[in-house]
Write a structure and sequence with these properties.
Pfam families: HTH_18. About 45% of the residues lie in helices and about 20% in strands. By secondary structure, it is an alpha+beta fold. It has a 5-stranded antiparallel β-sheet, with no helix packed on it. The chain has a 4-stranded antiparallel β-sheet with strand order 2-7-4-5.
């Protein structure tokens, strides 16, 4: 499986990456911009959200809904390695799935399901393996979607897909995120983004405020999330990653990264 170099830019395609680490480490306030599923191959992951926490291993599937902010700790296994596969789902795939399988979703909906770590059954495991195989083989988008929907349907039939299919109700926020993800190194301004989205600057600011967000917050969150992904999945130098993520100063990047995630880029790299 190729590294997720640019995975965030392929917002209309189901894609995947592999996360590896050799030392235990914790990342706080990790923003999830694209809905994803994660399965740990070796080691364990501790997930924290909404005053809750759960540990997940190879027997679990981890749900990472877009719009969440999670605390994540990764722990290597007995062989000294942490390895996990992460598959991202574009919003269009989730919307099409909800439309196509709405009846099955409603008929298997139980009490509100809020767990983000769910046990894998035989059918979901089989669907997951087929999905990863199709991505590894660089299968056509239609086949990736087919196997991706098989995973979602299996979760639905078990009453476990609820958190993935909730409507975030923040389309403008999502559009700004996707726009910035395409070129995080660019010197983005409110004026540039508003022009791209055919909005006035005041309208953009007002709509984002209604959604409880701001342009400055989205810009920094996207840049830090991009840097985090590159630090975890590529061997690019830290200074190069800082520049490619939109930070002219590597030292300022390190300060902002530590402030947000709770450890420095060098500390994270040392754990990988």
């Amino acid at each position: 499986m190729r590294p997720c170099f640019g995975i965030q830019h392929r917002e209309n395609i189901i894609d995947a990456c592999v996360i590896r680490a050799r030392q235990p480490h914790t990342l706080q306030r990790v923003p999830i911009f694209a809905t994803a599923l994660c399965r740990v191959r070796q080691g364990e992951k501790l997930l924290q959200w909404d005053d809750r926490q759960m540990r997940a291993g190879p027997q679990h599937l981890i749900l990472m809904p877009a719009g969440r902010e999670l605390g994540i700790s990764n722990f290597p296994g007995l062989h000294g390695h942490y390895i996990a596969d992460v598959v991202t789902f574009p919003g269009s795939t989730l919307r099409n799935f909800s439309s196509r399988y709405g009846q099955q979703i409603m008929s298997h909906r139980r009490a509100p399901q809020t767990d983000l770590c769910v046990p894998l059954d035989r059918h979901t495991t089989q669907a997951w393996d087929q999905l990863l195989a199709s991505i590894n083989a660089n299968a056509p988008d239609a086949l990736r979607t087919h196997y991706g929907e098989a995973v979602l349907l299996s979760l639905c039939l078990g009453g476990q897909a609820g958190p993935l299919l909730m409507d975030r109700n923040d389309p403008l926020c999502e559009r700004v995120q996707q726009l910035v993800m395409g070129s995080p190194e660019r010197d983005w301004t409110v004026a540039h983004v508003a022009q791209h989205l055919n909005l006035g600057e005041s309208t953009l600011r007002r709509q984002l405020a209604k959604e409880g967000d701001s342009f400055r917050n989205i810009l920094e969150s996207v840049r830090l999330a991009t840097a985090l992904q590159w630090l975890q999945t590529t061997s690019r130098p830290i200074g190069e990653i800082a520049g490619a993520s939109g930070y002219a100063s590597a030292s300022r990047f390190a300060v902002r990264f530590r402030s947000h995630y709770g450890l420095s880029p060098r500390e994270l790299r040392a754990a990988i």
